[in-house]
Design brief:
The chain is α/β, with parallel strands linked by helices and 347 residues long. Helices cover 54% and strands 10% of the residues. It contains 13 helices and 8 strands. An 8-stranded parallel barrel has the order 1-2-3-4-5-6-7-8, surrounded by 5 helices. Helix 6 links the parallel strand 5 and strand 6. The longest helix has 41 residues. 30% of the residues are buried. The protein binds phosphoenolpyruvate (PEP) and manganese (II) ion. The site of phosphoenolpyruvate (PEP) has 8 residues, from loops. Manganese (II) ion binds next to loops.
Length: 347
């Protein structure tokens, strides 16, 4: 079993003293140690429920006294930080819309200096790993040591079954950049519908997430925000107990994987060698186009390369879309190189 796996759960919004208490009591009974609840809600459209504000902090305090749970709330400004800390909130989180704004994140970071309070940072709404990294760095520079990231998915223009596209490559890249930063997954906002939340939570475990951040409401149908994606406490219990947990990798696993990994390393180095050779030819072609006054981009040629590698990939049981996207990247780099050479020729 993974050593550290934290599950934080609670309603999208704190709506009433009774709703907060009922939710906290049922989650505490399931061994959940931290209650999440939105007190100030960033809504896409005005005149939606924008959170209960300061009174909700009192309801949360009462739930903490009754259950001993820690409390986590979303903050979007220095004023929120101040109010939350005065109410003894244990953990703060920065929501997706806020992470998108360096000004707002800096204001929050400045207000947190010297507090030592743990902070969780959701990914920005747009799939920009630099923006996410930058928000984390702003908090680190304010001296906050206990920082976790929350992956909640990204806005996309494409039709998607899910509310927000997971784009797993983004948290994977964040992990590469900051290997010791824990990354939790919020499958509720990603899914947008409760029937998909369990499958995404499992995917997060398979991707080695360090925990889950899940919305649970005593009566989701009546919820004032995100009613379609929240679990009842019993649905939550069912899903959590059916998740397949993984154990930490051990020395003996690494030993057994080593020969396969070195085979991969050998192939990867051949791939790089082949790409370098390919790029040399691309440059020769670029020189010919330049001398003979031909356009760099030749769309029919690109189409025929893409079609032929895709059909060859299909005969080898590979996904055509994958191969097309690999060659899209290779082709884009070839065009970039030819443009660069063209510009050098013009100097
Ligand atoms: C939330 O967790 O309630 C929330 C508003 O999430 P996000 O910032 O991911 O939209
Ligand atoms: Mn929500």
């Amino acid at each position: 079993m993974k050593k550290q796996f934290d599950i934080i759960a609670g309603p999208c919004s704190a709506e009433s003293p009774e709703q907060v208490m009922e939710c906290a009591v049922s989650l505490a009974a399931q061994g959940i140690g931290t209650l999440r609840a939105g007190v100030w809600k960033p809504r896409t459209r005005p005149n939606s429920f924008e959170g209960a504000g300061l009174p909700a902090l009192e309801w949360l305090k009462a739930a903490k006294q009754a259950t001993g749970m820690k409390l986590a709330v979303e903050v979007a400004s220095a004023a929120h930080v101040q109010a939350a800390l005065e109410a003894d909130i244990d953990i703060l989180w920065i929501g997706s819309r806020t992470t998108t704004s360096p000004f707002a994140v800096q204001e929050i970071a400045d207000s947190l200096k010297g507090t030592g309070v743990p902070v969780m940072i959701k990914n920005p709404i747009n799939p920009d790993v630099d923006l996410w990294t930058g928000a984390i760095e702003r908090l680190q520079q304010a001296g906050i040591e206990n920082i976790r990231a929350i992956h909640r998915g990204f806005s996309s223009t494409q039709e998607n079954l899910l509310r927000y596209a997971p784009q797993w490559e983004i948290p994977i890249e964040l992990r590469r950049r900051m290997p010791s930063l824990p990354i939790l997954c919020d499958p509720s906002h990603m899914a947008g519908r409760r029937e998909y939340v369990g499958a995404i939570a499992q995917m997060a475990l398979d991707m080695n997430a360090d925990g889950l951040f899940i919305e649970v409401h005593p009566n989701p149908e009546q919820a004032k925000s995100d009613s379609l994606q929240q679990f009842t406490p019993s649905q939550f219990q069912q899903v959590i107990s059916s998740l397949r947990r993984h154990r930490d990798i051990e020395e003996s696993d690494s030993r057994k994987l080593a020969p396969m990994r070195s085979e991969l390393d050998e192939l990867d180095s051949q791939l790089v060698e082949i790409l370098a050779r390919r790029m040399e030819i691309v440059k020769r072609i670029g020189a010919y186009k330049h001398l003979n006054n031909l356009a760099i981009l030749q769309p029919q040629r690109y189409q025929s390369v893409s079609d032929s590698v895709a059909s060859e990939a299909a005969t080898k049981g590979m996904d055509e879309k994958f191969i097309r996207s690999v060659f899209e990247t290779i082709h884009a780099e070839s065009v970039r190189c030819q443009i660069e050479n063209e510009n050098n020729n013009l100097k």
